[in-house]
Amino acid sequence: MIKNRQEILFLYDVTDANPNGDPLDENKPRIDEETGINIVTDVRLKRTIRDYLYSYKGFDGTDGKDIFVREIKSEKGGIKDGKARAKDFNENLENILEMAIDIRLFGGVIPLDKASITFTGPVQFNMGRSLNKVSLKHIKGTGAFASKEGKDQKTFREEYILPYSLIAFHGIVNENAAKETRLTDEDVDLMDEAMWNGTKNLITRSKMGHMPRLMLRVVYKPEENFFIGDLQKKIALSFDILEEEIRTIKDFSIKLDELIDELIQYSDKIEKVFYTIDKNLKLTYKGEEIDLKDVKEIQFQEKSY
C-alpha cells in the first residue's frame, strides 16, 4: 500500500470538441457564465481513467482484474445496477477490493442485500477548470439519413463545441484512506498512464481533439501529512493575443513561477516529483523557458508513455 501523501496536477487541451456536456442544458459544454471558464467534472476524468484501464490494460473481469463501475448488460434487460454488480463479486468485499482497481482508487458505495458499505476514495479530484476563457460555438449540419423514408430532405443535427480549452485538474492521493481500499503504488502508476493515454485515446466523434499536455505528481515524504494544495492555481498562461482567440498550444506559454517557488520552499518535505510533458508545451520560470530537470532543488523524474 502507498505510504506517501501525493498531489497531482494534470493539464490537457480540447480543440473543436465538447469536453463535458451538461445533459440538463442541451449537452452544452459547462461554462461559468461569470468568468467564461470551462468546467469539467471529476466524474468525466474518472470515466477516462476507467475506460482506458478496461480497454487497454486488461481490467475487463478476467485474470482477477476488473472495473466495478462500468456498463454491463443485465439479463433482465438494460444495464446492471450497483446491487447486481456486487453480486458479480459474490457480495464479497475482499474480492471487490482485490479485483476492482477503481474502488481502490476512487472508493464507492457497495450496495449489499442487508446494508451498503462505503469506501472513501484515496484519490480525489477537484472540478477541472480551463486556464483560458472560452467561446461557445453552435454548429448545425445535415445528417446522413432522410428525415423520413421516401423523403429527400435529410435530418439536421446541432451541437455545441469549444474552439479551444486548456483544462487543469488538481488531485490528492490520501495515504490514510489508502489503508482502507489497499491502494498500491502500482495502482497509482497505472492511474498516471490512464490519465495520459486515456485522454489521448478519447477518439469518439464528440471527444476527438483531446490531448494531454502536462502531468505532475508530487510525492511527499512519509509521515508528513502535508501537501501544498491548489497546484492548478499556481500556474498561469502568458499570451500576446486576445484570450478568447487562443486556438493552439503554440499561442501561449505556461508560467511556473509560483509553483516552482513553492516546491522549492517545501523541498524538505518532498521526496520526488514525477512528470510527463508534451514536447510542444512551452514552460517558463522567471521569464525564461525552462526544462524541469534543470530545477536542482527538486528531484524531478520524467515518465514517458
Primary descriptors:
CRISPR-assoc_prot_Cas7/Csh2, Cas7_Csh2/Csh2, 305 residues, four-stranded mixed β-sheet, alpha+beta, coiled coil, Type I-B CRISPR-associated protein Cas7/Csh2
In short:
By secondary structure, the protein is of the alpha+beta class.
Shape: flat
Which regions have little confidence, pLDDT < 50, spanning 5+ residues?
none
Assembly level: single chain
Q: Indicate the structural class.
A: alpha+beta
Mean pLDDT score, rounded? 93
Report on the architecture of this protein.
Pfam families: Cas_Cas7. Residues 242-269 form a coiled coil. This is Type I-B CRISPR-associated protein Cas7/Csh2. The protein has 305 residues and is an alpha+beta fold. It has one domain (6-55, 119-302). Helices cover 22% and strands 34% of the residues. The chain contains seven helices and 17 strands. It has helices at residues 42-56, 82-88, 93-99, 101-106, 175-181, 185-200, 257-265; strands at 6-17, 21-22, 28-32, 37-40, 107-111, 116-120, 123-125, 128-133, 137-146, 154-173, 210-220, 236-238, 253-255, 270-277, 283-285, 288-289, 300-302. Strands 1, 2, 3, 4, 7, 8, 9, 10, 11, 14 and 17 form an eleven-stranded mixed sheet that branches. Strands 12-13-15-16 form a four-stranded mixed sheet. Strand 5 (107-111) and strand 6 (116-120) form a beta hairpin. Helix 1 crosses helix 6. The protein is flat, with a radius of gyration of 21 Å. The model has no long low-confidence stretch (mean pLDDT 93).
